[in-house]
Write a structure and sequence with these properties.
alpha+beta; elongated; 10 strands; 43% helix; 23% strand; 5-stranded mixed beta sheet
């Protein structure tokens, strides 16, 4: 699977480096777990469709009533059509320098307790945001000599609006976007035990090739990643089945199995009984 370097592929070579960039993304087919190297922090203002993003240690799903602010880095994007025959979102990219200049200018401290940092912030779409997006569309048609200045003003506008809307919670998130030490290898592995991601997808989130990932895994866990992850997922599946609320047919795909038969065989090989007997 190819890695998409975003927003570089949208830039069309107009400028070597841009502090701000707006792009209208539209498609007429589903995209599932596309590998994305996100080089700038990004607003994804979803207009039509559904979106799910897997990060190194978290995942999030939104519909057209919501938008996302996403931290730069490697992630997996799933973008799905809804009842309409098109998917559409307006993307606003901004550099870390632009963010730091904004925080300094408006003296935004973003004090908080040392909680785990989440790589996304969910924004509820409203009439103000709808009006804001319409104004962004008019900027794209402006002469380039004015575009940068106008975009700078529009960037400040949406930031100040969201600070007013979400308060300290959003301020804290903005500070978390400034580069710090990335998630540890073990945290990424263990946060994806209950996901249906493939090994190569987990390796991508660790910023490693599959072969490097396997070597690193063996050194850390003294076991092959395929067997270790399968065992952990089956144990988690067993815990869920014991609770009695879900059947194996409800959960097999969640743990990375293509069909119920494969899940049942692996489960019986591991525990000596079929999922139905739990």
């Amino acid at each position: 699977m190819l890695i998409e370097n975003i927003p570089e592929i949208y830039n069309k070579g107009n400028k070597a480096e841009q502090e701000l960039l707006v792009y209208d993304f539209k498609m007429s087919h589903n995209i599932v777990k596309s590998k994305v190297n996100l080089g700038m922090n990004m607003f994804s203002f979803l207009q039509v469709g559904k979106k799910k993003v897997h990060f190194a240690d978290a995942s999030v799903a939104v519909n057209k009533q919501q938008s996302l602010l996403i931290k730069k880095g490697n992630c997996l994007w799933t973008e799905l059509l809804d009842t309409e025959d098109i998917y559409y979102c307006k993307l606003l990219f901004f550099s870390e320098k632009k963010l730091m200049d904004f925080l300094k200018k408006h003296k935004i401290n973003g004090q908080s307790k040392k909680d785990s940092e989440v790589p996304y912030f969910i924004i509820k779409n409203d009439t103000y945001i709808t009006s804001y997006l319409n104004s962004l569309s008019t900027i794209n048609s402006s002469a380039s000599i004015f575009t940068d200045n106008l975009l700078s003003l529009k960037f400040e506008e949406i930031m100040l609006y969201l600070i007013n809307k979400y308060g300290n919670k959003f301020e804290v998130y903005l500070h978390s976007l400034i580069s710090k030490e990335t998630s540890s290898f073990k945290n990424i592995i263990e946060n994806n035990i209950s996901s249906n991601l493939k090994l190569e997808e987990i390796a991508f989130l660790c910023n490693m090739s599959l072969s490097t990932f396997k070597r690193h895994f063996m050194a850390e866990y003294k076991e092959t990643p395929g067997k270790w992850i399968q065992d952990k997922r089956l144990k988690k599946a067993k815990e869920i089945l014991k609770q009695g609320n879900l059947k194996s047919s409800d959960i097999y795909a969640t743990f990375g199995y293509k069909n119920l038969s494969n899940f049942s065989i692996a489960f019986k090989n591991k525990f000596g009984i079929s999922p139905r007997e739990i």
